[in-house]
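Pipeline run #58 for the internal structure catalog. This entry was flagged by the ingest filter as a single-chain record with no existing model, so it goes straight to prediction. Upstream metadata was stripped on purpose; only the residue string is passed forward. Reviewer on rotation: M.T. Logging verbosity set to normal.
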Amino acid sequence: MRLTALALAAAVPSALVAQDVSPAPGVLIARAIAVMKAQEDRGWKYTYREDRTESQIDKNGQSYSPVTKTYEHIMLEGENYSKLVLVDGKPLDAKTQQKVDRDLANERANRQKHRLTFHREISLGDLDVLERLFDNRVTGEETVLDRKSWRVESEPKPGYRPASKEEDQILAARHINWFDEQEGARIRGLQTFIRAANGFQPGSTIQWDYLKSGDAWLPETLTLRVDLKVMSVVHARGETTQRYYDYKRFTVESTLLPQN
């Protein structure tokens, strides 16, 4: 069924736009999954930078001064590794730099010692469960990140009994996804919690934005606005923004064989 829907979506997207007819949500979801699967099959790996800005909110609703940490995501023995390089745009102090260098050296030795074969996987996220667990509907066209897109809203199916703890957590949030009209890729995904799950309280949101870099769709920003409670002991509220940039495709293969 998904392959048939994908073929139709690939053949007539421009005609649908021209006729001002909304495609079925299943067609849009299938196209986006196919785009991600094709990208995953290429096996591309990337180095990139990440700026992670965090701010906490106290019990009176006042925000603490945000802190921004910059990480370099590098290839270490064939797999991604994040290395802290700046704090609030400034070089690390000597003590922190020594710890960062020590941690990197230890991780390199650990990966070499165990002789593991590493794989980088690109998750399909929540798209592969939308048709099974949610009621989906196309709610219009919008311009998102300067690209024309279809907006699809997904509500948990009423009365559905989750088959696992994972499904129960997935069904704790409603989803909105925006799919690029031209290429079919998901360019934004937003999850809003409607009940507590895994510490996340109702109203917490998680949003991913994606950018086109060469022939690949890659994460650009991750924004979390969360209200967390852990075992009724820890209660934290705050916002975290992670920005990913300066992507460079890693072209040197580094395959480690399992040790007998």
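catalog note: Residues 94-114 form the longest helix (21 residues).
catalog note: Residues 1-19, 116-125, 253-260 have pLDDT under 50 and may be disordered.
status: ready for reviewer M.T.
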